[in-house]
Design brief:
The protein has 314 residues and is of the alpha+beta class. The protein contains 7 helices and 16 strands. Strand 11 and strand 12 (222-227) form a beta hairpin.
Length: 314
């Protein structure tokens, strides 16, 4: 009896182990399967989370030819300071003033440089009104070439629209030389309708390498010696001539101290990298700037001239 009882107990134990092995394997398999599904789900959730954190970007393109300028984060455009700084940065990078054309000594027209303008206000408007799903922003950049042709300037020296003459001491060599050099740079500059003239850009930097010499100039209410002293007499004479001709003044500054070659408040001070004399041709026809320097008598005359056929019509 005891023997049969032990046998029965053994059979029950073996059956239980077999059942437990089969069931446990199935349970373990289900657990592993569920674990795999959970891991896959977690990975998908992680990928989705990563996608959600990818910052959308906008491409800024040049409106002239569609080339890419740079990329910006969409969220950064919510900042007024950022958009204004970005607009100012690109404006400084792309804006170029016009260099007007010039009639050479050989009578041939020398082409100038186009004027490049980035419309800062329009660009800021574009940045602050980005639409959903928008991916590209055009940066509004335009170019304006000097508005003249060889045919249009025929006989441009016929009519005097305005002129002005000032005197200088020819015995002061440095000052006389500076007046002469700067006058040569602006001589026979041609401005078509709407064209602009920037004195500093046309005359260029005043350096010894370019022939400019030391002479007295006014700085902060005082007379001091500096390279290029005297060119303000050229710019002041030019200002009075173009003012008499009725051209449009864009920028004008007076000296901090009275000068002797023009009446009070009829001067136009300039400095490289600083104050400038700027004007535009507001006529419907081309005009030419002409300078005449008489080193023996110590005079500089600036004239504004045009062709008779155009003046007669206006």
């Amino acid at each position: 009896m005891k023997k049969w009882s032990l046998l029965l107990l053994f059979i029950v134990l073996v059956s239980g182990l077999i059942f437990l092995g089969a069931y446990g394997g199935a349970v373990l398999g289900l657990f592993e399967k569920e674990k795999h599904v959970m891991n896959t789900h977690d990975k998908k959730e992680h990928l989705l989370s990563q996608k959600e954190w990818i910052e959308p970007e906008l491409v800024l393109i040049d409106s002239r030819d569609g080339t890419e300028i740079q990329k910006v984060k969409a969220s950064s455009l919510k900042s007024k300071e950022y958009t204004e700084n970005l607009a100012a940065e690109l404006e400084a990078k792309y804006d170029k003033p016009m260099i007007p054309a010039k009639l050479g000594a050989d009578g041939k027209l020398k082409e100038g440089q186009v004027r490049v303008v980035l419309d800062k206000e329009a660009f800021i408007q574009e940045l602050t009104t980005v639409k959903a799903l928008q991916k590209v922003i055009e940066v509004p950049i335009t170019e304006t070439a000097p508005n003249i042709t060889a045919e249009a300037i025929a006989n441009i020296d016929q009519v005097l629209l305005g002129s002005y003459t000032t005197k200088f001491n020819p015995n002061i060599i440095g000052r006389s030389r500076n007046i002469e050099l700067s006058a040569q740079e602006i001589n026979q500059i041609i401005l078509g309708p709407g064209d602009r003239f920037y004195f500093n850009l046309v005359v260029g930097e005043r350096t010894p390498e370019r022939g400019y010499q030391k002479a007295m100039e006014i700085v902060n209410h005082e007379f001091v010696e500096g390279i290029g002293g005297g060119i303000c007499q050229t710019s002041s004479t030019l200002y009075n001539a173009i003012d008499k001709a009725g051209l449009g003044i864009l920028e004008l500054h007076h000296h901090s101290k009275a000068v002797g070659y023009v009446p009070q408040n009829r001067d136009a001070t300039v400095s490289w990298g600083g104050k400038d004399l700027k004007f535009m041709n507001n006529k419907e026809y081309p005009v030419m700037i002409k300078t005449i320097v008489n080193k023996q008598n110590g005079t500089i005359e600036v004239q504004v001239r045009a062709a008779a056929q155009y003046v007669a019509k206006n």
